[in-house]
Amino acid sequence: MGEYYFNIMKNAALAIDVGATKVAVGLVTREGEVLARHDISSKVSSMDELNSSLVEAISDVCHRDGVVLVGAGIGSAGPIDKDLGTINPVNIPHWVDFSLVDFVREVSGIKSVRIIGDASALAYAEFVLGAGRGATNLMGIVVSTGIGGGVVLNGEFHVGRTGNAGMIGHSVVVQGGNLCACGQRGCVEAYASGTNMAKDFGVDNFEAVAAAARLGDSKAVAAIDKGASVLALGLLNAVALMDLDTIVVGGGVMLADDVYWPILVKHFEKEMKALNFPGNVALKKATLGKDSGLVGAGLVGFIS
Ligand SMILES: [Zn+2]
After folding, report:
1. Could you give all domains of the chain from N- to C-terminal order, each with its CATH number?
2. Spacing, Cα 216 to ligand 1 middle (Å)
3. Do the beta carbons of residue 268 and residue 227 sit within 8 Å?
4. Distance of alpha carbon 158 from alpha carbon 63, whole angstroms
5. pLDDT in tens, 38-90
6. Which residues does residue 248 pair with via DSSP β-bridges, in sequence order?
7. Ligand 1: distance of its center to the CA of 170 in Å?
């Protein structure tokens, strides 16, 4: 009987994915299975309200029979500070400079709590379980309303000094170029995010650009072409700096991969040819879908 009980115990990590409008709280196994999930809205009127709903969600997912909690991982929009455990989510003013790590540690009783950028969470999940399996030097990027990235170097998850390594969206590729949301000019994100491709075409969101491009609208295709060509420049720089073997692309813009992907591949191949590195760099579509941020946060909870 005791042996049977032992066999059904599962190791899992508490995973928290801080998104633009909601916070997903889950229990994730090493294989990426989501055993439990409880989403809360971050569009609330006070920090107390937000924190008490987080306490409720953590308590809900953590109390599961047959589960051993081994750690916790938090993925959040950057910039983060991995040592202070703070996040600075633009869309959640209640949590600016709030030490979410300390809070989660206290509420859950889990000692090992790590925080990473949301794009790093996707990169790590794709490296362990998705399109990046078998890669050694990988960058995973998220092309969405903004652009983020995360890095694996020599087979190890590389977060950098403060936890923000791989922030390709704010690498500068056009001197004196378009103003970026970060305050800098000429960032990759200022051209290549879904939001900025939409702005270039004169609409609110990337879905509208993709829909027009599907109908053969040449201005829509040109807006995508411009964004993808600037992103390819950013990727060229990343490959040149880190000698990557694999790049995995995910995020909301990839929902329109029928129109976006061939254009990105065209520009990427052109840049790689010019770089003239030995060997090919694989450009791959992310395969883990919309749960990759939550799964990646959970997988990071397993890193001791
Ligand atoms: Zn920027």
Report:
1. 2-120+292-300 (3.30.420.40), 131-287 (3.30.420.40)
2. 31
3. no
4. 32
5. 999 998 999 999 999 999 999 999 988 899 999 999 999 878 999 999 988 77
6. 140, 284
7. 4
